[in-house]
Amino acid sequence: MRRRDAHLLRVEAQRRGVSIAEVVRDALADHLPGRAGPGPLSFFALGEGSPTDASERVDELLAAAVRRDRRATDG
User: pTM (2 decimals)?
Assistant: First the structure.
């Protein structure tokens, strides 16, 4: 490993208050294919402006969001 990269790892680990191994695991998880991490809806219906019954209608609202996303990407 290059010295500069090792230094950056130490600095980042210190900044986060975690081990260097934890920083490496996070970096790998973020860049390896097939990662099943949070997507754009990971905080679904959080905050102001959400429907008040969003928790009861999550399946319906999620399906609508997926349909909108598909239409937008399919052209």
Answer: 0.45
